[in-house]
Amino acid sequence: MTAAIRIRSAQAQDAAAMARVHVETWRETYRGIMRDEVLDHPGFVASRTRFWTAALTDPHFARNRAAVAELDGEIIGIAMSGPPMDADADPAWTAQLYLIYVYAAHHGTGAGSRLIDAVLLPDEPASLWVADPNPRAQSFYRKNGFVADGATKVDDGVREVRMVRAAR
Fold it and tell me: Which residue ranges does the record assign to the N-acetyltransferase domain (predicted)?
C-alpha cells in the first residue's frame, strides 16, 4: 500500500530537497518554453538551494508561506505565496502565489490543490503569473478559482499571463 501524500509547512532543512524539486519540475514544465541554457545551467540547483535557504530562514521573507508535498518521505511538490509584488496589484489582493510545482508523475493526485490551500487562505483574494502557453497549468488554476485578468508580461523570454482569484 502506498502512503498518502502529506502536505506540511516547509522547514529550513527542506531547502536542498525543495531546490531539486524546483529545478527538476522546471525542466519537466518549461523545456521548449524556456532557454535550455537556463534549465541546464550547472549551478541551477545550487542557486535554487540558496534561494530556498533564504526564503525559509531570512526574516525579510517572514510574511511568505511555503509548503511541501511529501510521498513516502520524499518531497514531490512545493509552493510559496507572499505579499503581492505587482506595482499595479489590486488593493483587494492580499497574497500572490509565487510558485507551485509538483512532479508530473503526481499531477492529478490533488497535491497541487492541497498545496495552494496550504499557502493561501480559503477566502484570500490572490494573484499569480503563469507561463503562456501552458494550458495544463492554466486549467489547473481555473479549477482552483483563478481567472486571467488580461495582464501579460515577458520574463526571461517567457510570456506570462496574470490570473486572479476573488475571496471565495
Answer: 5-168
| CB-count burial class (<10 Å; 0-12, 13-18, 19+) for 66 | buried
Model's pTM, two decimal places? 0.92
Does the residue 1 lie in any domain? no
Residue 141 pLDDT > 80: yes
- Domain of residue 67, residue span: 6-165
Cβ-based neighbour number of residue 68 at 10 Å:
23
- In-domain check, residue 143: yes
b/e sequence 117-150, b meaning 16+ C-beta within 10 Å: ebbbeeeebbbbbbbbebeebbebbeebbbeeee
Cα separation, 151 vs 11, whole angstroms: 33
49 within a domain of the structure (yes/no): yes
DSSP 83: S
Report the CATH number at residue 98: 3.40.630.30
Q: Give yes or no for residue 3 having a pLDDT over 90.
A: no
Asked, for residue 60, whether it belongs to a domain, the answer is yes
